[in-house]
Amino acid sequence: MDAPLVIRPRLWLLFGAIAAIALVPFLLSLVPNPFEGLGPEERPSRFFMAMWLLLPVLMLLAVWRLLAWTSYRATAEWIEARSMLGVKRSAWSDLTSSELDVPTGMPPAYELRFGKRKVRFIAAHHDRAKIQALKAMIAR
Q1: pTM of the entire predicted model
Q2: For 29-60, b where at least 16 C-beta lie within 10 A, e where not — what string?
Q3: Is 83 within 8 Å of 55 (Cβ atoms)?
Q4: Cα–Cα distances in Å, from 91 out to 38, 70, 72?
Q5: Confidence (pLDDT) at 1
């Protein structure tokens, strides 16, 4: 029996998300409050105001990336998506179309369509060699 093909997001995404979650509170403690000590006609510093807005957004995106972490296992019969929300398996017999040659859309991604359900592999987040191995598996 062949071992299943395992497709995971690149490791730098995991380390980047963990680093963002750890560093953002520290960086927010270093950034001065842009609204503190302002007079009636004074404006806050745009740089510090942007930092106060963008750092929490960065942390929310990192938390979302970890919560949405999905790995895929593909065999000759099916592809399985594993995430925190559970496991979803789709049979290759249900595959209606696939775009594994060139990434399409925004962000550029490879797509498999199983009727109404789509499986998307964001090109920057997944290894191209694994996508090509998946394409060869589908062709069999």
Answers
A1: 0.80
A2: eeeeebeeeeeeeeeeeeeeeebbeebeeebe
A3: no
A4: 62, 18, 13
A5: 47
